# Entry
Amino acid sequence: MTTTIDITSDFICPWCWIGHTNLKAALALAGQPHVQQRFLPFELNPGMPPEGLNRQAYRTAKFGNWARSQSMDEDVTQAGKQIGLDFHYDRITHTPNTRLAHKLIAYAQLQGDSDKSERLFEALFVAYFSHGHNIGDPAVLADLAAAQGLDTQAALAYLHSDTADTLLDAALEQAHAAHLNSVPSLLIGNHRIVGAQSAESMAAILVKLNHHE
# Structure
């Protein structure tokens, strides 16, 4: 029987990238490399303008001063380095609105290729955190879609469709109804894991859940 893991995240959440990397390691440790992963949306900044905001100005307003934001970024960079992830906050000038990115991963999943969807999911984090690309820009998203072999014209058409908006809003409402207020959040069966747990702790949970099936 295939295990399904619902992964709720936002693409500007560094711990979501760290958490997913740890999950992959946990699946290998637990001897469950093949699971069905479903990627579900969450908006850390639901009020973000469609065009996004200057990151330094936004983070300074959010945390009171830029130095505090830089200190938090450094903590994340070091945590990422421990598991082989490259965070380059010096390249990020823009905090994007992530609605289009969420629609793109939804489009990819609708195509039915789970491996391609997972690669795109990771590519969105790499584009933002490693390269500083604006993942709220349709042109950037089109390039990421093309890199995974998706039909870019169809993907772009989907991003601007009423259907995409309707499905995204419904998925965001489901997260709200589940009382999710932070990400990453994993749902394995009826067991929810919140936060970027270590690979070892997640592997232990996976093994325990597997034995209880």
User: Anything to note?
Assistant: The radius of gyration is 17 Å. The longest helix spans residues 66-82. The chain is about 55% helix and 10% strand.
